From TrEMBL:
CC terms in the record's Gene Ontology section: membrane
Gene it is expressed from: Upk3b_1
Protein name: UPK3B protein
Domain of life: Eukaryota
Lineage, opening ranks: Eukaryota, Metazoa, Chordata, Craniata, Vertebrata
Transmembrane intervals: 172-194
UniProt entry keywords in alphabetical sequence: Membrane, Transmembrane, Transmembrane helix
InterPro entries associated with the record: Uroplakin-3 (IPR024831)
Length: 242
C-alpha cells in the first residue's frame, strides 16, 4: 500500500489584508503558503490545490497519480476538482513569488482536456473549501488541512432592481412642483432684463467691420507623423542576410 501523505498543520485562508477583488462572484484569493512543504518536497515535486464544495470535502480522495487528478469540468458532478499545478520550489522560503493566488481566475480554460489543469471560474457562490497537496512521482507526499468555508459574492439579479424610484409622499411632490414653477418664472424675468440691456448696448457700438474684413488669419498646419527609423539591430544585419 502507498504511504499516506504527511498531514501538515497549515490551514489555507483568504488574505486578511485589504485587497481589490479579494472575493468576487466567481473567484477568490488565497494567501500563498511559504515554507510549508520544504521538509517534504523534492525538485521534481508539484503542489496542487484541491477545491471542493464545502459539503463535499469529506468525500474527496487524494489521487494516486497525476493521471487521476479530478478535472475542473467534472466539478458540477464530482463536486470537487484540482488545479494550480505548480513546482514545489515556488512555495519554498526563498522563492520570489506573488504572495497571493487567485482561484477561478482563468476564463479561457473551460474547454481544456483532462491533462491540462484548469483554473476556471467557480459556477456558484459555494461555499467552497480548499487544501494544498504535494504530489511526487509516486503519489501524494504531504497535504495541508482544509480551509474554512469560503462564500463568494452573489450577483445582483436585474429583476430585483426597482425600475422607478420609490414614490414620495403627496405633500413633498406638491412642494417640489411649486418650487420648480417659481424658479422657472424667476429665471425668465432675469434673462429678459439682461437681454434688453445687451440689445441696447449693441445698438450704440461700432464693430469696425472694415478692419475685420481686411485682417488675415493663418492656421498652424500639423504635418503627418512620419515613420520612425527602426532601432539598432532591427535591420537586415550583415551583408547577405537581407
Amino acid at each position: 500500500l502507498p504511504t499516506p501523505p504527511a498531514r501538515l498543520p497549515y490551514v489555507p485562508h483568504v488574505p486578511p489584508t485589504a485587497l481589490l477583488g479579494k472575493i468576487t462572484a466567481t473567484t477568490f484569493a488565497l494567501e500563498r503558503p511559504r515554507c510549508v512543504f520544504d521538509d517534504h518536497a523534492d525538485a521534481s515535486d508539484a503542489v496542487w490545490l484541491a477545491v471542493a464544495f464545502a459539503n463535499a470535502s469529506a468525500t474527496f480522495r487524494n489521487p494516486r497519480s497525476r493521471a487521476d487528478v479530478p478535472p475542473y469540468k467534472e466539478l458540477p458532478t464530482a463536486r470537487f476538482y484540482m488545479t494550480l499545478e505548480t513546482a514545489a520550489a515556488a512555495y519554498s522560503c526563498s522563492a520570489l513569488s506573488p504572495p497571493v493566488l487567485r482561484v477561478g481566475g482563468d476564463t479561457a480554460c473551460r474547454d481544456q482536456g483532462r491533462q491540462d489543469p484548469c483554473n476556471g471560474p467557480l459556477p456558484s457562490p459555494g461555499p467552497y473549501r480548499v487544501k494544498f497537496l504535494l504530489m511526487g512521482c509516486r503519489g501524494p507526499k504531504a497535504e495541508t488541512r482544509w480551509s474554512e468555508p469560503i462564500l463568494l459574492r452573489r450577483a445582483v439579479s436585474p429583476g430585483t432592481i426597482a425600475p422607478v424610484p420609490t414614490r414620495r409622499g403627496s405633500d413633498v411632490v406638491v412642494i417640489s412642483s411649486i418650487l420648480a414653477s417659481l424658479g422657472a418664472v424667476l429665471a425668465t424675468a432675469v434673462l429678459g432684463a439682461l437681454g434688453a440691456k445687451v440689445w441696447g448696448f449693441l445698438r450704440h457700438q461700432d464693430f469696425g467691420t472694415d478692419a475685420f474684413t481686411h485682417r488675415s488669419f493663418r492656421t498652424h498646419h500639423i504635418p503627418p507623423v512620419l515613420p520612425q527609423p527602426p532601432p539598432p539591430g532591427c535591420g537586415c544585419g550583415p551583408p547577405g542576410l537581407c
